[in-house]
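On clarity, I found the account of how folds are encoded harder to follow than it need be. For illustration, here is how one protein appears when written out as sequence plus structure tokens:

:::
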Amino acid sequence: MSATYLMPTYNRQPISFTRGAGSWLYTQDDTPYLDALTGIAVCGLGHCHPQVTQAIQQQAATLVHTSNLFGIDWQERAGEALCSAAEMDSVFFANSGAEANEAALKMARLYAHQQGFKRPKVIVMEQSFHGRTLLSLSATANPKAREGFFTLEDDFIRVPFDDIEAIQKVAKEHDDICAIFVEPIQGEGGLNTAANGFAYLEQLQTECDAHNWLFMLDEVQTGNGRTGKYFAYQYSNARPDVLTTAKGLGNGFPVGACMVRGRANGLFGAGSHGSTYGGTPLASRVVHSVYDVLANSNIMENAVTEGQFIRDSMTDALGQYGVSSRGAGMMIGIVLPETMDCSQLVDRARDEQKLIINVTGGHVIRLLPPLNMSRDESEQVVDRLLELLKPLF
């Protein structure tokens, strides 16, 4: 497959898909592949969901773009629906998760500026991933991703994920902290979850409340039903001041969102931030369509049931070899022994089992199947993974 005119910014796999339907992707010769990655947690409703497809077709034939110089009815409707689902007060629509996170980090700086801070710091977590724009990349933990870009290291304090004592320690050492920014489950870092589950978020909010910091959650990957709740923080009693999301927000259509409440409410005013393409009539109608499907079906409940089935089936079959699982809903990490060579698993799963997976954190198989995957398809994911893995033990 030639990509002569494309910048070599991706290590692309030697395959191309020409169509998708539900949990399946198809090549030019119509070979089916079971998709347990969904564009990295993007197509949560499966490929070409009929209700979302209809919304795109109808709006594309009606009005695509006017700019935010004018009122946008579908943006108002999408904003109301999303804020209702997220329990937030207002929203800024962007084009991606990175842009949503950039907005959140700009907001933290503005919040600090209003309190008289000259060079504020945001607490972020080791093994985090927040995007590839300059500020969101600076917040990201991976040194390889930051290398060569002169990122803003001095603006962030990194602490281990799931370590409240580390946060309390840096709070005593620094008087210029303005916010904590954290993923409820670390996606790129290896599907890392806190030892006490989502109660960790409540502990983080307690620290933020004690120090008058913004409590900011990156739910770019965990949001929009991925974990079995509309947003993962809703498994807890925590309430963020800033909440970002993208990926499943448009089921494949590029759109992101940054929502606020509490201490962050009212920080942005006219001219504080903007986006030419943010919240177009087309993007906003897609967001509303995805919301309508999630809010009026049992898809999130299905994500919990099928995700648990996949995790339990894998650990029942391979637990004796030191294999474990973690995650929530259809955000699944199958944790292999660190000594196992996982370098060829993605290619072998694709070529031998016609199964699309990902490996993250070095030795964690990351599965992000459609939220509405059927039991038969879940069984196929398990069977194909076991066919792949059992000979390695």
Observations:
- The chain has a mean pLDDT of 96.
- The CA atoms of residues 323 and 336 lie 5 Å apart.
- The first strand starts at residue 19 and ends at 21.
- Residues 299-318 form the longest helix (20 residues).
